[in-house]
Specification:
Layout lengths: L7 E5 L4 H13 L2 E6 L19 E5 L5 H8 L4 E4 L6 H6 L1 H22 L4 E7 L22 H20 L2 E7 L1 E3 L12 H10 L4 E4 L5 E2 L1 E3 H13 L6 E4 L6 E2 H12 L4 E4 L3 H4 L11 H7 L7 H15 L5
Parallel strand pairs: 1-2, 1-4, 2-3, 4-5, 5-6, 6-11, 7-10, 8-13
Antiparallel strand pairs: 9-12
Helix pairs in contact: 1-7, 2-4, 4-5, 6-8, 8-11
């Protein structure tokens, strides 16, 4: 029997990109799933994401900032995948207080609810490579200094730290994953709030140019969402993950220009343009980044399985078939 069969699982941000893909996998594993999502338009929740399993999950439209509802919802669950968050770096600078409320204060109230009402739960928290800021050296491992260049990164550090303190002081089992550029089916493509690859996909399929900022030479790593789901589930299953922070990463980091070229070639349509960096984005750009994921590979046995070309092909195919639900 697999670990999740019969387990009661709650996913915050459960109607969003990563949460919905995780729910689809957990449903196949036989978990009893509660999805919590605010469905605030800017944050990526989409009921269509779980249409295939809508009769297999319990959906609760609630905001992680509502500590009273979370206190109730957390009770009785075996695992919490804590994925709800404000993900836009630019939004965090233009309006920092919602980012503070969602990515910092709400994390503390969630952990307090666990401590008081479900201390045996396992919590897996989705953090971000943005906590590192501009890399000193590549690839970036977990010992790299934390020097975020935006408010989002600062608040994510707070969220991480709360999870580790509750693990170490209160024995609430927690694990932290620092995600890099995650992409795939069900991601937000209306804009670049979740990932720039989203708006690139939209433009590609609507015959608009992909806009590559700067010189296009910035290097990034990319994880297909199925690989990220595997990492989340491994962290939930393993006691080796308790109290630990893990980077994710990829075998094949690529420049943004190369990614744009690959997308156009894969889709057999579209074009890209190299354009100047918008000033507000240039100030918070981190330059080249790719992560060192040797720690999660050695401790949990995780490594990415889907390369960038395969992942982009599957992503483009999905959105071609379902575009109307994501515009």
């Amino acid at each position: 029997m697999n670990f999740f069969s019969g387990k009661r699982v709650i996913i915050t941000g459960g109607l969003g990109f990563i949460g919905s893909n995780l729910a689809l996998k957990l449903a196949k594993e036989g978990a009893a799933i509660t999805l919590v999502d605010s469905l605030i338009p800017e944050y990526g929740g989409n009921l269509w994401n779980v249409d295939a399993i809508k009769n297999q999950v319990r959906i609760n439209i609630s905001d992680v900032r509502d500590e009273y509802s979370l206190k109730y919802l957390i009770q009785g669950n075996d695992v919490l995948f804590n994925l709800a968050g404000q993900t836009s770096h630019l939004d965090s600078m233009n309006n920092p207080f919602p980012d503070l409320e969602i990515n910092a204060r709400s994390q503390l109230s969630i952990l307090e609810a666990c401590r008081k009402h479900n201390p045996l739960i396992k919590v897996v928290f989705a953090s971000t490579r943005q906590v590192y800021g501009t890399p000193e050296a590549l690839p970036v491992d977990e010992r790299h200094p934390l020097r975020p260049v935006d408010v989002n990164g600062i608040n994510k550090i707070a969220g991480e730290s709360y999870h580790l303190v509750y693990n170490n002081v209160y024995n609430i089992k927690t694990a932290v994953l620092r995600l890099t550029n995650t992409y795939g089916p069900r991601m937000r493509i209306k804009d670049a709030r979740q990932t720039f690859l989203g708006i690139w996909i939209k433009n590609l399929l609507q015959q608009q140019p992909i806009l590559v900022f700067g010189d296009g030479k910035q290097v990034r790593d990319f994880n297909y969402v199925d690989d990220v789901v595997d990492a989340l589930m491994l962290a939930a299953e393993s006691d080796e993950a308790n109290g630990q922070i893990f980077n994710l990463g990829a075998e094949d980091p690529a420049s943004l220009k190369d990614v744009a070229e690959l997308m156009v070639a894969t889709a057999r349509t579209g074009r890209y343009e190299i354009v100047p960096f918008p000033n507000e984005l240039k100030k918070i750009d981190i330059g080249d980044y790719y992560g060192d994921y040797r720690k999660i590979r050695s401790k949990l046995g995780w490594k990415p399985k889907v390369n960038l070309q395969q992942g982009l092909a599957q992503t483009i195919e999905y959105f071609r078939a379902n575009l109307e639900h994501y515009l």
